[in-house]
Amino acid sequence: MRYLSTRGHADRKQFCEILLEGLAPDGGLYLPEHYPQVDAAMLTKWRGLSYADLAFEVLSLYIDDIPAADLKAICAKTYTEEVFGSREIVPLKKLEDGLYLEALSNGPTLAFKDMAMQLLGNLFEYELARRGEELNILGATSGDTGSAAEYAMRGKHGVRVFMLSPQGRMSPFQQAQMFSLQDENIHNIAVEGVFDDCQDIVKAVSNDLDFKRQYKIGTVNSINWARLMAQVVYYFAGYFQATTSNAEKVSFTVPSGNFGNVCAGHVARSMGLPIAKLVVATNENDVLDEFFRTGVYRVRGSADTHETSSPSMDISKASNFERFVFDLLGRDGQKTKALFHDQLASQGRFDLSADAAFASAAQRYGFVSGKSVHADRLATIRDTWQRFAAMIDTHTADGVKVAREQLEAGVPMIVLETALPIKFAATIEEALGQSPTRPAKFEGLEALPKRVKLLPADVALIKRYIAENVH
Ligand SMILES: *Cc1c(COP(=O)(O)O)cnc(C)c1O
Description:
Elements: E1 3-5, H1 15-19, E2 30-32, H2 40-47, H3 51-60, H4 68-78, H5 81-84, E3 92-96, E4 99-103, H6 113-131, E5 135-140, H7 144-153, E6 159-166, H8 172-179, E7 186-192, H9 195-207, H10 209-214, E8 217-218, H11 225-242, E9 250-255, H12 260-270, E10 275-282, H13 287-294, E11 296-298, H14 321-328, H15 333-347, E12 349-351, H16 356-359, H17 361-365, E13 367-371, H18 374-388, H19 394-404, E14 413-417, H20 425-432, E15 453-456, H21 459-469
Parallel strand pairs: 4-14, 5-6, 5-8, 6-7, 7-15, 9-10, 9-14, 10-13
Antiparallel strand pairs: 1-2, 3-4, 11-12
Helix pairs in contact: 3-4, 3-11, 4-6, 6-7, 6-11, 11-12, 18-19, 18-20
Bound molecules: pyridoxal-5'-phosphate (PLP).
Residues 111, 113, 144, 222, 255-261, 312-313, 395, 418-419 line the site of pyridoxal-5'-phosphate (PLP).
């Protein structure tokens, strides 16, 4: 399998080449040259597999530069009951007939990003050792991504993490999760500023190419193909749990921000997994809902980007969306480049409403969308608790709200549960008048000793800190 750029660059790369890279040289995102197809015989064979073995089968279709035995060992080491809390890894929970939750958030940081990031940690360690190289991951986080990255990379050889977060802006639980890590290769940096300051610093450091090369700076953001590929696996696992034969179809509803999670659903569907609809659920930051309703993709300014009670979906643009648009436009790299490079830069929007491809987005690709706001989240959390005794988090609530608008008789609807309620306690208390349940292993988390460096929002000082801690 070779990988190409969504913006038409002529290079073709192997998996391990793009594993440690971010964007393609022309600013595009990497995608496989084609989507391998699964047939009925393969689905039948895969139906009975453990999650780790299923992951190995799916990944093998995309990776041919890691020996099979090594890849199998990496999958087996990643997807264990010990790390993810159950034998199924992503157990399906029935709410009522035809409506299910797929639990993706029982990993170390209680959010679905662990599903991919845990694999990424093991792939990075493997590939860096093979090359005899080191990597220093620099990132900015307002919550889930940073902690998932730290828990994936802690104690790994050849990798250090420098994670910037806006001081005092994360939920107390999220902050305690990150700052309580005592591993030597994990560096928490609390920046005196807001999330945008953190992101600007990461950009400034990454744009200093000499510094980047000298200190081997890399990232783990959601545009990494390996993360997306890892997420494809749980669409298969959810399908197998909700059906008994490969003649059945299911739909998925996905709480969405950067379009990473649901893009993996698009890949699974493109491989031939019998998915009827892919339902994109957004919060007040409805960039994606607007596109699927109108054909207009409009990036928001910071004044137009809302802070909501499902904060992991608070985005101004959807960084993985370019991958779907590339497929939608018949994989035309020049056209994709004209939209994402030229039009977005000059106008901040593009309009596909008159394009025949857009008219077929629902028909050919199964995409529909919906939006949920704070009042919807409260009502949905309350309703789900009262009727099914299931406590769901704010992001999953956005999913359940929108899923209910898209139910079809005879097609099971699977809502991806993207986090556990304990991470967003304040809104749960607002909805239910009681504190969320806390998994036993997180008792006393906030009281643990903290390891964090407080620094001003100053690029030079952050660079100096990195330089002093790379040896
Ligand atoms: C990251 C995240 C999302 C959004 O996922 P995307 O891949 O960015 O669409 C939704 N819910 C939770 C809890 C998250 O952490």
